[in-house]
Amino acid sequence: MAESSLTSLIVWWGFALGIVFGFIANKTNFCTMGAISDVVNMGHWGRMRAWLLAIAVAMIGTNALGYLGYVDLSKTIYTGNNFTWLGYIVGGLCFGVGMTLASGCGNKTLVRVGGGNLKSVVVFIYMGFAAMVTLKGIFGAFRVNVLQAPAVSIQLERGQTLPALLSGIGGLSAPTMQLAITGTVALAILVFVFMDKEFRTSLDNNLAGLFVGGVVVCGWYLTGHVGLAENPDTLEMTYFGTNSHLAESMSFIAPSAYTLEYWAYWTDASNIVTFGIATVFGVGIGSFLYSLITRSFRWEAFSSAQDMFYHIIGGTLMGFGGVTAMGCTIGQGITGISTLSLGSFLALASIIAGSAVTMKIQYAIMMREA
């Protein structure tokens, strides 16, 4: 297949996966920030269990692809040798604070845009721009020279996945360790998720977990297997249709930056739509289609200047934090975790901590002003 045809195939299928993601996320009210809020403020675990189910499904499917040789999980941004622990922590904390101030993470922002939320349009612009300047601009200098500097990074010879780090223990090889860890962690998650009777009877939460996790697995197969081909110019195996030139799946912070960059350089012939950009469009359109079908599309604007200020700050923190932590609640919290990357677990824990602490502070302020 020609290079342009293969890239187009990856992009169109990425667009379709985005539509499915956006449609299901809107229908089921899947929201990672909302899941944390439910637990912190109400002690309700329904949406958190949906998130955990998505993680388990993605973990099982992704590692099955890796074990069977369909996807090389070492060729991703999550599994490299450079363990930038400070970037994961600071980026994760910033993202957690930001998504709380902005009333939702990157994927929820796109879902709300599709439902007519003008506040989320503003968040998307600031989030995407902050991500862009963290990738390539002024924030990027601080990210690379301070948070991800060699002096505060750890080089792991065999990579940072749990199977690679633990291989050899008990005489188990890395592939066997991969199966053992995947089975143990996924089974523990599934037992916790389905031990709750209320969750077992919640169709929306089950749909959210199954479909979101399944979309992540499909993304890995699409970019990591279908999109892997010989480059006719270099005669080397190349991943086509992705910004990183590696295998990718669902993530929404860096792709938001690439989307704004694509719009800004529209007339540049070298600037093309990629899998990540296509998923950004797809999520918004999928959500829009659901809102049209259910007649739930509503225009929503800021309630005050202070409300707008908080959302702008939140979007900016998400853009910076998501790039620095190398992912968001979906990019690290599901896609990255599915590779069993140690950095993904650290980034996710930092995101949750940042969000939970911000919610507690917001609640304390509200009670003081009441």
Give a short summary of the structure.
The protein is an all-alpha fold. The protein is 68% helix and 3% strand.
Structure report:
With about 375 residues, the protein is mainly α. The protein has one domain (about 5-370). Helices cover about 70% and strands about 5% of the residues. The protein contains 16 helices and four strands. The strands form two sheets. Strands 1-2 form a two-stranded antiparallel ribbon. Helix 4 (about 85-100) runs antiparallel to helix 14 (about 305-325). The longest helix is centred in the C-terminal third of the chain and has 28 residues, at about 340-370. The radius of gyration is 20 Å and the shape is globular.
Notable features of this structure?
370 residues, two-stranded antiparallel sheet, globular, 68% helix, 4 strands, mainly alpha
**Largest sheet features:** 2 strands, antiparallel
What is the tally of helical segments?
16
**Structural classification:** mainly alpha
Q: How do the strands line up in the largest sheet?
A: 1-2
Number of domains: 1
Can you give the mean pLDDT?
Answer: 96
The first-to-last residue Cα distance is 65 Å
- The string of secondary-structure elements, in order, is HHHEHHHHEHHHHEEHHHHH
What are the low-pLDDT stretches, counting only 5+ consecutive residues below 50?
none
